Amino acid sequence: MTLTPIELFASAIHLRPGGRIHAGPGPVDSGGDGWRLKAFHAKTGDDVRADHWQVNPDAEEIVSCVIGKIRLYLRPEEPGRREEEIRLTAGTAAIVPRGRWHRIQLDIPSTVMTITPPGGARLEKRAGPDPRYDRLHA
To answer: Record keywords: Signal included (predicted)?
Structure first.
């Protein structure tokens, strides 16, 4: 078997059960099992959907800052509480608990990598403007 480099920013990578890995262009055809690795350059808030909350009800998620500085926010579990902020710098990651609403915000243009179960994630529009998002949105 000849090994060839995988272009992370142009490939869909699916970590399958049983230790198999599939990489190729286009979306991941998961069949609902395994995990998806996604790496991308984020220049603006649109690239990380900073104006949306996301939740993975069936699994945890890894969010990693490969290059740059990002903030990972966890939505409060109880009304009236503040968002939890986790600052991630180059080479750091956080594990988002199963079923926890979260969002990413850029401090500077960054390279982000996530590992999630394919499908099953839900998005919800975030209410209200955020000046930090607006600053990197343009």
So the answer is: no
85 in a domain, yes or no? Answer: yes
DSSP for 72-89, please give it. EEE--SSTTPPPEEEEEE
pTM here is 0.84
Query: Which H/E stretch holds residue 54?
Result: strand 52-55
For residue 78, give the amino acid letter. Answer: E
End-to-end distance of the chain based on CA atoms, in angstroms? 46
Residue 24 lies in a domain: yes
Low-confidence residues in the chain, pLDDT < 50: 133-135, 137-138
The amino acid at residue 91 is: G
Judge whether 123 and 72 are in contact, CB under 8 Å.
no
